[in-house]
Amino acid sequence: MIVKIEKLAGFCFGVVSAINLVEKELKESDQLYCLGDIVHNNKEVERLSSIGLKIIDLKAMETLKNTKVMIRAHGEPPSTYELAKKNNIEIIDATCPIVLLLQKNIKSGQKEMEEIEGQVVIFGKKGHAEVIGLVGQTKNKAIVISSANDLDLIDYSKPIHIFSQTTMSKEGYKSICDEIENRYKLFNPNLQQKIIITDSICKKVSSRSKQLIDFADSVDVVLFVSGKNSSNGIYLYSLCKEHKEKTYLISAKEDINKDWFIGCESVGISGATSTPMWLMEEIAEYVSK
Ligand code: SF4
Fold first, then answer.
1. Is the beta carbon of 146 within 6 A of some atom in ligand 1?
2. Could you identify which of 13, 14, 62, 263 might form a hypothetical disulfide with 73, taking C-beta atoms 3.0 to 4.6 angstroms apart as the criterion?
3. Each residue of 241-257: pLDDT tens digit?
4. CATH fold for domain 13-95
5. Is the domain 98-165+168-201 a CATH 3.40.1010.20 member?
């Protein structure tokens, strides 16, 4: 049986630099706090915890003083930096540069919208760490849209600036933006108000679509390795599943069911931007055996 790993699979550069930062810090000290899971992958979190990374939540951070806390690639709202300053906590900032740029653009988008009584809309998952960080740039005024069910939250008689969380599906974003534009045109037949759509989906995720579909088409069974809370993982898995019915979402080799491979001659392994290559290699070796 042929077992192969997709060429573009593995950590994105945002995750690579966050993990490099953790490893660098833990060479100099035997413990480092990280606000939230460093990546949405339990196996990698376990590995980093074994060398001294301690995952904490915001409540725990409130009780810390005079120490270092890492901010992961998803970023944080301004209130977290204020808390760090108040408690004399040194921030080790691993916010991905793409997320940082989006935070900056949302902040200036909010300023512009306030001047013309408009609203910032963010297409993203409510409660997701990145979205909390993005909404924080607007002093929590942005409207979060997770699906078409939330579209009534927008006032279509006023200007609108739409952004997306970096790891949402580009098809989903397009369809939400089309619907917002349709409703907006009903309220503004002469386009007397302003609507701006910013493409803020990370190309690291969206550019994988074609290669992933081709990869899924080239094998009999796909094992998609991802944490179930990884936003890009769920999107890329669904894409694979649409094209290859025999696609299975797993987080470790223990999830594998041997029946999946009956009559199968080739297995493809891929994963989210937060899935470590060592884990996919371990799974490939297990399947080969
Ligand atoms: S998926 Fe994109 S935005 Fe998110 S951490 Fe990776 S490179 Fe950065």
1. no
2. 14
3. 999 999 999 999 999 99
4. Rossmann fold (3.40.50)
5. yes
CB 186 within 8 A of CB 192: no
Alpha-carbon distance of 251 to 2, in angstroms, equals 21
**Confidence class for position 228, pLDDT limits 50, 70, 90:** confident
Query: Nearest Cα to 273, choosing from 235, 232, 214, 239?
Result: 232
DSSP letter for 151, please. Answer: G
How much distance in Å is there from the Cα of 282 to the middle of ligand 1?
24
Domain 2-9+206-288 has CATH 3.40.1010.20: yes
130 is catalytic: yes
Task: State pLDDT tens for residues 159-192.
Answer: 999 999 999 988 999 999 999 999 998 888 877 6
Q: Is 38 exposed, middle or buried (0-12, 13-18, 19+ CB in 10 A)?
A: buried
| pLDDT tens by residue, 19-52 | 999 999 999 999 999 999 998 888 899 999 999 9
- Cβ(165) – ligand 1 distance below 6 Å: no
Fold match, 13-95 / 98-165+168-201: no
pTM score: 0.89
